[in-house]
Amino acid sequence: MRRRGERGAGAGDRDRDRDRDGDGDSGRAEGRAGAARPERGRLAWRPRLRTLLLGLLLSYISVPFLIRLFPFGVLTKVVFLNLLAYPFFVDLQRPELLLNNTINLYLDTEPGVTVGIWHTVPGSRGAEARGKDQHWYEEALADAHPVIIYLHGNGGTRAASHRVQFLKMMGAAGFHILALDYRGYGDSSGHPTESGFTTDVLALYDWAKARSGNSSILFWGHSLGTGIATNTARKLQEERGIQVDAIVLEAPYTNIREAAIHFPITKLYHHFPGFEYLILDSLALGNMFFLNNENVKVLACPLLILNAEDDAIVPPQLGSKLFEIARSAYKDKSKVKFITFPKKLGLGHDYISFNPELPALVKDFLKMK
After folding, report:
1. H or E segment and range at residue 178
2. In terms of pTM, does the model score above 0.85?
3. Catalytic positions, please?
4. Within the chain, what is the greatest distance between any pair of CA atoms?
5. What is the distance, to the nearest Å, from the Cα of residue 203 to the centroid of all Cα atoms in its chain?
6. Which residues on neighbouring strands pair with residue 341, listed in sequence order?
7. What is the pLDDT of residues 81-128, one digit of tens each?
8. How far apart are CA 28 and CA 333, in angstroms?
9. Which of 13, 126, 129, 230 would bridge 295 by S-S if both were Cys, CB 3.0 to 4.6 A apart?
10. From residue 73, how far is each of 79, 179, 193, 258, 353 by CA, in Å?
């Protein structure tokens, strides 16, 4: 007999079984909820990823059309890269912080345009140059040492490391170097254009010629600057009957259209429908030609072409092609010379000026002692 309030053992067992079953159901439900939370977290990223990918695709597609519609606003910035004023935080008015025997000066090339220039004198006059002012440097141009007007490539300023190295090496080798930042570059005023660059270099040539006496003056163009060098030399020859004493083209191209095929950004669009029409043909709309291949056909001055086999920016075959065009056009074939630097030297696009043999090669070409 059970007392009132007592429950049978069977009933108690059944209650415990139900409790255990309840706990199991609850645990399974919590487990399912826990598994669902990371799944929902992963799913939440999918719309964001789709939005990001869609944005990148639309940007990729829109660039060629923007270039075609606004060649002066978009394409000129891509080609000239003058907004990348590296190295940053360099005082261009104080070249002595980076170079010996060098001063900064400014030249008005046309109304409203002033360009910044560094003048490095030959290393042999280094001790004499200490503490001297611009007037002394100007008079020094007539000391019979050859004068290089150095025309740099796109992007950066005259203070870029490989350009500073060029001034050091060629200055030590006995050259005056006048390195300018074209209009729109560095601390120079104005906006970059192909015709404007020619105006700037012509003004500097006239300024140097008026002070250099019988010293020879040569143009040295690097990359984009090769087109500026031949443009200016051709203009001097055709409009004034003046032949520049020599031209050195470092990492040159045939023309800007052919060079543009190899720009890092345009490589992304080689298989894009309408690539030539939307991008390459737009260069002409932006008045950008830089026709080295046409310019060398009318030049007659000594011409030296320098290329590195491992140039990843301007393919060396463009330099070889330009050499063949020039050599075919020149009556005196001995005036045209091509030097290529082997891949093992690792000089690439910017560092031919780091080759210690460069001054001797140039002097041999110019028949200097």
Report:
1. strand 176-180
2. yes
3. 223, 311, 349
4. 137
5. 24
6. 308
7. 999 999 999 999 999 999 999 999 999 999 999 999 999 999 999 999
8. 90
9. 230
10. 11, 27, 12, 21, 33
